[in-house]
Amino acid sequence: MKRLVVAVAAALVFSAPAAAATPEVDARAYLVMNAQTGEVLLARDARDRLPIASITKLMTVLVAVERTKPDTTVVVDSDAAGVTGSTIRLRAGERLPARDLYAAALIQSANDSAVALAEHVGRGDSGPFIVLMNRRAQELDLRDTQFVRPDGLDTPGHYSSALDVTRLGIEAMKSPVIRRLVRQESASISGSRTLHTWNDLLGEFPGAFGVKTGHTSGAGWNQVAAARGNGVTIYATVLGSPSRGTRNADLEELLAWGMSRYAVVPLAPLERVYARVPVTYGLVPVPVVAARPLRRPVRIGRPLVERVVAPALLELPVEKGQVVGELRVYDRKRVLARTPLVAAESRGEPGLLDRTGWYAGRAVDNVGSWFS
User: Fold this and answer.
1) CATH classification (class only), 266-369
2) Taking a C-beta distance cutoff of 8 angstroms, is the pair 111, 119 a contact?
3) Residue 138 contacts by C-beta under 8 Å, 6 or more apart in sequence?
4) How far is residue 318's CA from residue 343's CA, in Å, rounded to a whole number?
5) Do 74 and 99 meet the contact criterion of CB atoms below 8 Å apart?
6) 3-class secondary structure for 91-117?
7) Residues of each domain in the chain carrying CATH 3.40.710.10
């Protein structure tokens, strides 16, 4: 059956009731991204190579989770027990399940836990683990990232960027283990230890659910944060903020600004007729409507394109509710939504007398055309 494609350009445009001011961020670099589409909504110096401190542990735990079962017993060696900074005071020779070290590295940002995981996977040497971290970064096309340590402490040649950190955060959150841990404000693990998060946005910013903070004297205050609102998931990354409070305030403003760029709107009202398709025997064309309503988050102020795909002619009989085509809504080149198009009315096949009359009429028309 021949198909008819009707495109209506810029058919849907949604504007904001009041334009939100662009945030002013006090940091060395920042970025805001729509996690579903990967679109960068706002950024400054997002590819500058900067120290990222304990955000590093996202890659550390990601690599460890991919190579170690959660119930695997890890024996802490003296190198891990001797690491400084944020720790859970691991002791040389202590035995813990890997899941506890995942939790300590992500929730409390424990340096000793990160090193213990690296040395376990590297069979007593963190060097092979660093190779795995950098190989994983290459697989993710993190072009401005290089790891030297599993804990993120300041060291030459250890860096990433706001863009790469954001992409790493999105990838890490695909892991159910990581996704569950980074949203916890506290947790209890073996050794009667209680972990507390450094992520101040959890429980404070509506919709926040991760992901990782980082701080050293060289890196400043850093964080990649994620939150849901207005039907979208927004990631915001700040690198090199001058203080914890400034970092938190800037992240809240960036996340809120990112969400304000979207609105959940109806894209396919059921009462709208998208086409009237001709039918055989010249009967009244069949109105075509959406099979179900569509509601999607859309970028405010950006034109959408509707495409109605329907047949040039429908063969009788046609039943009400019969699928006859498809509605597609595009945001630029991306299919934002789609739904079947169905006949809004039935059309029965005409009887013998009516069909005979129709054929006779066609014959008369054809004969007449010979003399015109």
Assistant:
1) mainly beta
2) no
3) none
4) 7
5) no
6) CCCCEEEHHHHHHHHHHCCCHHHHHHH
7) 29-260
Instruction: Give the residue numbers annotated as catalytic, written as ranges.
Output: 54, 57, 109
Domain with CATH 2.60.410.10 in the chain: 266-369
Both tokens assigned to 268: 């396919």
Q: Which CATH class is domain 29-260?
A: alpha beta
| Dist CA 175 CA 161 (whole Å) | 22
Query: What does DSSP assign to residue 281?
Result: G
- The Cβ-side half-sphere exposure at 172, using a 13 Å CA radius, reads 33
Q: Residues 211-224, buried b or exposed e (16+ Cβ, 10 A)?
A: bbbbbbeebbbbbb
Structure token digits, residue 122: 């590297």
Buried b (16+ CB within 10 A) or exposed e, 11-21: ebeeeeeeeee
Would you say the pTM of this structure is higher than 0.70?
A: yes
Strand segments, DSSP code E, in 174-254 are 186-189, 193-196, 208-216, 220-229, 232-241
pLDDT tens digit sequence for 336-369: 999 999 999 998 877 555 555 555 555 545 544 5
Rounded Cα gap, residues 61 and 151, in angstroms:
10
Backbone angles phi, psi at 331, to 5 degrees: -105, 100
At position 61, the amino acid (one-letter code) is: V
Residue-wise pLDDT for 155-199, tens only, equals 999 999 999 999 999 999 999 999 999 999 999 999 999 999 999
3-state secondary structure of 370: helix
**Residue 136, φ and ψ in degrees, nearest 5:** -65, -40
